[in-house]
Design brief:
Glutaredoxin; 21% strand; 180 residues; alpha/beta; 5 helices; 6-stranded mixed β-sheet; two-stranded antiparallel ribbon
Length: 180
């Protein structure tokens, strides 16, 4: 009995230590509106050949996701982005996926056939990655405000709850007509 009690106490202490050591999810925080930089424009075709121009999304909050079919974190996040697109599309959210697969549509089209997405996918390039300061690893996800400015930039997997909070914050912001 004494052994079980001391094991239970040791387990509780270890669990507490882990909880204290792990970082807590950070609250939604986006760059102050005045400090945001314009998102570089691009024009790329989706899987149906329809041109996607980032500049056409002004007035919307854009979730711009750089991903690849081989990226484990991307595969976890993409269903969240599908969910956010369903939930916030009517409020002004538009997701765009930018595949960084080296072989382009050869890998992406079969992947898309298996995974139904509710937002357009385009194929990125090293030159496009440079426009955005480089893509150091994947996933990389940006939130672009209604004025076409980068409000947040995430390298690696996002915290789903905090990221959704950032989306909600940006959806409540108004378009700055002077910024157009």
């Amino acid at each position: 009995m004494k052994h079980r009690l001391s094991t239970g106490i040791a387990f509780t202490i270890a669990l507490l230590a882990i909880c204290i050591a792990l970082p807590a999810p950070t609250p939604a925080a986006v760059t102050e509106a005045g400090a945001r930089q314009p998102a570089p424009d691009f024009s790329l075709s989706d899987s149906a050949g329809t041109p996607i121009h980032l500049s056409a999304y002004k007035g919307k909050v854009v979730l711009l996701d750089f991903w690849a079919t081989w990226c484990t974190g991307c595969k976890i996040e993409i269903p969240w982005y599908v969910e956010f697109q369903d939930k916030y599309k009517s409020s002004g959210l538009s997701a765009i996926g930018v595949s960084m697969d080296d072989d382009g549509w050869k890998s992406v089209k079969p992947w898309l056939a298996e995974h139904k997405l509710n937002y357009p996918i385009v194929i990125g390039s090293p030159d496009m990655a440079k426009l955005y300061g480089g893509i150091p690893s994947m996933p990389v996800t940006l939130l672009i405000d209604r004025n076409g400015k980068v409000a947040d930039w995430h390298v690696g997997m996002v915290d789903k709850g905090a990221f959704e909070g950032e989306i909600q914050t940006l959806l409540h912001e108004k378009v700055n007509n002077a910024a157009k």
